[in-house]
Design goal:
The protein has 319 residues and is mainly beta. Helices cover 8% and strands 20% of the residues. The strands form three sheets. Strands 1, 2, 5, 10 and 11 form a five-stranded mixed sheet that branches.
């Protein structure tokens, strides 16, 4: 990546520091976050055991992942941090990603910088808070959170010796015409600078997906249920290739089986070629969005006070 994220000031209705504990819009209690974000495997030994187990399975893990489109909502300069929620309300999601080298017997890619970004519970992306998510949803400004409109639900983590990164976030919402998803990039060769990650090469650009039944269960809860309309299932999505884990389908485990509002733990192994370079213009484009929905570019534009070093979002696909 180029540029740096030097502006740390809080803008419109953003007066409280990022805590991840603030709830709004009928959101989830802080206790839910504590339960979902509890780190049960903090030792490197546990990470190594899980990584070895994943690489030895026949579930499609530790294969070269399919690169897909970066989509129109990418912004340069995301912050290096574990918790990317910034107080955004939603069902807690702990995300564990293991990066492995498919050219070297599934060896962990230590030091890889994993970047993720996704929409909030109503389908809005930071930097594009006026982009129409399709259907009927409150304005993003009505969520009552303290999140920074330019940075929420975006972030980096640098992989440990076992190629593992962990994020604390919320279950994404949806926007027309896409299914529920999280965008992901894997970078190598750069370094942390000014709170973000600079330089290096993008080796993988992909998306992570969610089981339809679990998504439906989540979207019936507050605040997700305030966004009504036609949700796109996996089989009808223009990006998901219906190839399970190799195509980015997350393994999900409920924190509390009888209460989905307590959150989920999601995990996946990303098999990459650390010598390859990804342009972010992978497969998965195409399809004509319905009227009023995001098309090849967002219907909204970044705030006028967005960091001057932020790159223009890609307009390569409707995703």
């Amino acid at each position: 990546m180029t540029g740096s994220h030097k502006e740390k000031s809080i803008t419109r209705r953003r007066a409280i520091a990022v805590t991840g504990g603030t709830v709004a819009a009928g959101g989830i209690a802080f206790a839910g976050y504590q339960a979902a974000f509890a780190d049960e495997t903090t030792t490197t030994e546990a990470d190594a055991s899980a990584s070895a187990s994943a690489s030895s399975t026949g579930s499609g893990q530790c294969v070269l992942m399919s690169s897909v489109t970066e989509g129109p909502y990418y912004l340069d300069g995301a912050l290096v941090r574990k918790d990317i929620t910034e107080g955004k309300s939603g069902v807690p999601l702990t995300l564990r990603i293991t990066v492995q080298d498919t050219t070297d017997s599934c060896a962990p890619v230590a030091g890889a910088a994993v970047e993720i970004w996704h929409c909030d519970a109503w389908g809005y992306y930071s930097g594009y808070t006026t982009a129409n998510p399709g259907g009927s949803a409150p304005a993003e400004s009505e969520d009552g959170s303290t999140a920074n409109d330019k940075t929420y639900l975006r972030g980096y983590q640098v992989a440990n010796a076992n190629g593992v990164v962990k994020f604390e976030t919320i279950f994404p919402g949806w926007y027309t015409p896409r299914t529920c998803h999280i965008h992901v990039k894997v970078h190598t060769g750069g370094e942390k600078e000014d709170g973000t990650y600079e330089g290096g090469t993008v080796n993988f650009t992909g998306q992570l997906f969610f089981d339809d039944d679990i998504a439906a269960e989540i979207f019936a809860l507050e605040p997700y249920s305030q966004h009504s309309g036609s949700y796109t299932k996996l089989a009808d999505d223009m990006v998901y290739e219906d190839n399970g884990v190799a195509g980015g389908l997350l393994t999900l485990k409920a924190v509390h089986k009888k209460d989905p509002s307590k959150g989920y733990k999601g995990s996946i192994v990303l098999g990459i070629d650390p010598d390859a370079e990804s342009t972010g213009a992978g497969s998965g484009g195409g399809g004509t969005p319905p009227s009023g929905a995001p098309g090849d570019a967002p219907t909204g534009t970044p705030p006028s006070d967005a960091p001057s070093d932020s790159a223009s979002p890609s307009a390569s696909a409707s995703s």
